[in-house]
Design brief:
Helices cover 76% and strands 0% of the residues. By secondary structure, it is mainly α. The protein has a domain at 161-224 and 226-299.
Length: 430
Amino acid sequence: MLADKAMRVSRRVELRRPKNEDGALEARVIDCFPAIALFIFVAYHGLRDFIASTIGMYGAVVYTLTGISYLLLIVYWFRCGLRLSGRVILPAVAVFAIFSIYVVLCDVDYFIFDDYALPQAINPMGGMIAFLFLASQNDAKRADAALKFACIVMTLYLQASLGSVMQATTLYGYDMGLGFDAMFFALLSLHFIVDDADGLNIPSFILWLVCALSNIALILSYGSRGPLLGIIAFAALRFLVFVFGSKTSVIKKFLISAAILCAALILVFSLTDLALALNHQLNSIGITSRTLEKFLYADVMSDSGRSAIWNALTPRISLFGNGPFSDQAYLGPGNYCHNFFLEIFYDFGIPFGIVILCVLAWFLVLSFRSCNVSPWFPIFLTLLAFCIGRLGLSGTFWTETYFWGLLAVMGLCIADLKKNAAAASKEVAR
């Protein structure tokens, strides 16, 4: 009898064990879903065009990739019991509420529903939706791995697209979209180089160096000046964080800073010769670099008509704003402020615009304070550098994918900062 009872107990244990193990495995797999969704989101254009060119059925590929990425997020959200509400749902509801209020109160033209405005802002694989994909991330290492794979895919995709780009730039001299795409993946590559520096993994270093140089070459050949501003911003931000935020010894900081400054001075004094040599090389293969031409002929500071736009919009800034996309409605399809701060004040007015900028500034300060406690901080710096290059001279924040991604990553940095502060206070209490 006792033997039978023991046998029944052992059977129950055996039945339970696989179930628990399966549950743990299922949890680990589902925890990877946000990173996989992020990979699809960032590498979307490359994956879409490659798969469609291979098997055809362009529309089916679009819907499949979009559906898979959203399905992964939805499964993860339900697996977490929708605990992401404070980080994901509430900000989304707040933006929607503000947008709806302005649409109702302001006589915003129906233009916002045309291709150049609202559809781009809520593009299922771009625009504001980037906030959901970044805010849903649960592990910085997995997110970093997803971005690494996406960077490789998109670098290959951009290089493979050179034929069509060369045809397009024959008429216009440059491709702004390509330049900013190349800038993002150049910044990602530089981010991986800097973060892998301590490990000194030679194959990894060579891979990211090749990716960085190939994307920078695209920027110089076919891009505008904004992407170069983003790369300069990245270098400046990384240097400042190293000097003031890292825990490296003072002597090491001094020696590295001196070496960097010397290299920068050499580069500045030889910049014209380098630009001439590079421009000559590009011209020899039939490429005219708009950026290099402007630099060599002292036209690099020209605003390309932006001052006329700014002068036209500034007098129209009202107390309570003109509403979302109102600058585009006034200027016409495809035109916008070309300046982040002007767009904020034009859309939301002076008082509310000041409040928005102050909140953003405070979030930036908190994010910088997380430099030694949050694994998301390097990604934050990369996205911030991109937004400086993109939104400082061009683009609109409503449709800029990585601006909304930056907001999400700032939330992740601040969350880590709060966790660290709470842990420190508990330690003090003990």
